[in-house]
Design brief:
By secondary structure, the chain is of the alpha+beta class. It contains 15 helices and 16 strands.
């Protein structure tokens, strides 16, 4: 028997209500803040991610699905959403539009990771990017928008962590301070962090292994090494977050996992879980578009994993809104009744009324069982008597009432 590939899941009918609820909420919140939807290809030139995400990151070194196509081109299934959005921004001349350009996406993401609850090899993200503005007020709006998304879904037990990792200039001094601090602790680091210390120093702070975490807790803080501009930017951000009434904590260990971040970084985590259960995060990436061949362009964004969102909805006992549309089942007996059933099915569908029927003339009892199993609110019965009188027997399944009606009367009741 074939099975879904490891690290992937089938989206079964019983879960579709959750997906519809989350995706509709995402689209509604995006519209509220003035974002337009953008869809990008599922695969891109591999260089896009190597250049943007960073050669020293776990994503590029261990997790990307990269292969040569039949033309000999190296392509990669997208491991994150920001770089493709920025590529599209440059390629389609969006820098000529009124800035900031606000874009959101709902897309599948691919990373070769060890599968576990909330961590898959194919997963889905809702993300949004605001491109072309440097103000910390926009950072605060992006954070507020992401928090509103979770609130609209009903998720409450979440914590918001923020930090600033500075710009490329002041970060040089901070990285120097970090390397000096860790120089005397190298033997205490895990093998991955020993490599990160040279290739991607900030990621050492993000390690969750028992031996590395205490060292990170006592490491120098990025906020103590900010230049005047970055310090003023972070102060404006936190002042606006205070004004918005958002409950947040400054976490100096927060750096995010991608090379392109500058200044603001933030994450949203469930209170009952650890850092591995982060359900969303983002920040500012002022140098990325220039790195991809565009003009110097400031930008900030956010992404959240939809599987993790749904997992948290289920844990919190939050159910999606029920489908309130009424369902009709048409029961028939005999060839003439079948033709009449086909006619009324067409009429119901044309009037936007959900209706299904049996495809074989089974017994009344069997067809009623089928109506019940499909959750029918109403049953229309057509037999010899109904054919002869050109009428229908209309049964309300909720109160078991039954009456004979004309087609017009039937439509009036169902409308």
């Amino acid at each position: 028997m074939y099975q879904a590939p490891r690290g992937t899941l089938d989206r079964l009918p019983e879960d579709q209500a959750y997906w519809n609820y989350v995706e509709k909420t995402a689209a509604d919140v995006a519209a509220l803040y003035g974002y337009s939807r953008l869809d990008t290809p599922v695969f891109e030139d591999s260089g896009l991610f190597i250049r943007s995400v960073g050669e020293g990151t776990d994503i590029v070194e261990k997790e990307m699905y990269t292969f040569n196509d039949l033309g000999g081109n190296s392509v990669t299934l997208r491991p994150e959403g920001t770089a493709p959005v920025c590529r599209a921004y440059v390629e389609h001349g969006m820098q000529n539009l009124t800035q900031p350009v606000k874009l959101y996406y709902l897309m599948s993401i691919y990373r070769y990771e060890r599968p576990q609850a909330g961590r898959l090899r194919e997963f889905h993200q809702f993300g949004f990017e605001a491109i072309g503005e440097s103000s910390a007020l926009l950072d605060a709006e992006v954070i507020d928008m992401s928090c509103r998304f979770y609130r609209e879904l009903g998720l409450k037990d979440l914590k918001l962590l923020v930090n600033s990792i500075g710009c490329q200039d002041c970060r040089k001094e901070y990285l120097k301070a970090l390397r000096e601090y860790y120089k005397v602790h190298v033997d205490e680091l895990c093998d991955d962090c020993k490599k990160r210390l040279e290739k991607n120093t900030l990621r050492v702070l993000d390690c969750k292994k028992p031996g590395c975490k205490p060292l990170a807790d006592n490491a120098p803080k990025s906020t103590d090494h900010l230049c005047d501009d970055c310090k003023a930017h972070f102060e404006q951000l936190t002042a606006r977050l205070d004004q918005l009434g958002l409950d947040y904590k400054i976490d100096h260990r927060l750096v995010r996992g991608l090379d392109y971040y500058t200044r603001t970084v933030y994450e949203v985590q469930p209170l009952i879980e650890g850092g591995q259960s982060t359900i969303g995060g983002g920040g500012r990436y002022d140098g990325l578009i220039e790195e991809l061949g565009g003009k110097p362009t400031q930008a900030v964004g956010f992404a959240t994993g939809l599987e993790r969102v749904i997992l948290n909805l289920k844990r919190a006992g939050i159910n999606p809104p029920e489908d309130t549309r009424k369902k009709v089942f048409v029961i028939w007996f005999g060839d003439e009744a079948l033709r009449k059933a086909g006619h009324i099915m067409d009429v119901l569908h044309e009037n936007g009324i959900s209706a299904i029927t049996s495809y074989s003339g089974r017994s009344m009892k069997a067809q009623m069982r089928q109506a019940n199993s499909n959750g029918a609110n109403y049953v229309i019965i057509i037999g010899d008597t109904e054919v002869a009188e050109n009428k229908y027997t209309f049964k309300d399944m909720e109160n078991s009432s039954q009456e004979t009606v004309t087609e017009e009367e039937l439509l009036e009741k169902l409308r």
